[in-house]
Amino acid sequence: MSLLEVRGLKVHFPIKKGIVLDRTVGQVRAVDGVDLSVEKGRTLGVVGESGCGKSTLGRAVLQLEPITAGTVVFDGEDLSRLRGSALRAMRRRMQMVFQDPLASLDPRQSVASVLAEPLRTHGVKGPYEKRVRELLDLVGLPGSAANRFPHEFSGGQRQRIGIARAIALNPELIIADEPVSALDVSIQAQVVNLLEELQERLGLTYLVIAHDLAVVRHISDDVAVMYLGSVVEIARADELYARPLHPYTIALLSAIPIPDPEVEDRRERVLLTGELPSAANPPPGCRFHSRCPFRQPTRCADEVPALRVLEGFPGSQVACHFAEQIAARELKPVHAEAAEPAATAHGTDTPPDSRRSSAGSPS
Ligand SMILES: Nc1ncnc2c1ncn2[C@@H]1O[C@H](COP(=O)(O)OP(=O)(O)OP(=O)(O)O)[C@@H](O)[C@H]1O
Ligand code: SF4
Ligand SMILES: [Mg+2]
User: Fold this and answer.
1) Per-residue pLDDT tens for 134-150?
2) Dist. CA 254–CA 293, nearest whole Å
3) Distance from Cα 300 to the centre of ligand 2, integer Å
4) Which listed ligand is nearest to 321 at the C-alpha?
5) What's the confidence (pLDDT) of residue 197?
6) What is the whole-number distance in angstroms between the Cα of residue 288 and the centre of ligand 2?
7) What are the pocket residues of ligand 1 if the criterion is a CB atom closer than 6 Å to any ligand atom?
8) Using CA atoms, how far apart are residues 117 and 123, in angstroms rounded to an integer?
9) Of 89, 93, 161, 330, which alpha carbon lies 20 to 30 A from 4's?
10) Is 28 strand, coil or helix?
């Protein structure tokens, strides 16, 4: 069974106008019908452009944002039905790691106090020194760090403190919202490795949010790609990177350079055109149609594509009316920077159909 099941999740924020009457004149559809699940001990990466609703999704899972519609089921319990002490008990089992460790750590609190705080808040009896030392050791910091203050540490060390705080209560699920985006590239891998090590040692389940496909690639078992509040593709990470099926995923991957110069030279670029539309006024039909290089004259602009499993691709779900034809290369992107005729649009020299043989189940 999945540890986390999200079904039809919507989070809409009212747009208010007027000082006296404070009328609601519209809705920002930050999350607009997300379905996903994460198995125990696995990692789901969630990627997408800035403003597509990743953080709102993470916060809504933890019930830190009011849910407009849909359900979040954690370990069999529908969280939206829980109140008071039952919700607090569930929250203890789910923790968050934030993007900017400095902003999320109180500069006046020593590290010992930062790490003891969740224990104190959830009624764990002190003294806390032993647990603080254990936590520091788990995240690779010396015991002497306990008496120092957040500003005395480097960005990577501060994120280690943020992670130690998140695991203080022995949670089962960690939602890491852009956990390495504020760090130097050289430090990012160390923090990602630490998250992986902790997952193994403590049996953690992760939902890792990033705007960068490269960051979630190594840590994720499965990846969900979000566009304007909904999931457009969800697949096993290795399959998604090798054979993206949704035009948005194809375009995102097309923007990432491939280390092999021969493949890099031969491949065809699939470019995204136009601005990301506003979540207050998303395009009708397929939300991606205003920027889609594979857009067709029928269906795209007036029929919402459902997230579905394609025949022959059991490990993936994709929300595109024409995914089969795109995978079979019967449809070609417009605006593509054509390279040599033999080049592929998928960043490798294996045709998209070769993924048909790979099995797996959506997470
Ligand atoms: N409290 C709020 N009130 C109104 N609109 C909000 C609120 N929080 C987020 N939004 C809007 O909801 C949409 C999704 O925001 P969100 O922060 O979830 O995106 P994101 O994918 O995390 O972006 P980023 O990569 O920049 O962090 C955006 O249009 C944002 O402006
Ligand atoms: S449904 Fe149409 S517009 Fe949407 S991704 Fe598929 S081809 Fe593009
Ligand atoms: Mg965000």
Assistant:
1) 999 999 999 999 999 99
2) 12
3) 5
4) 2
5) 97
6) 6
7) 13, 28, 30, 48, 50-56, 211, 279
8) 10
9) 161
10) strand
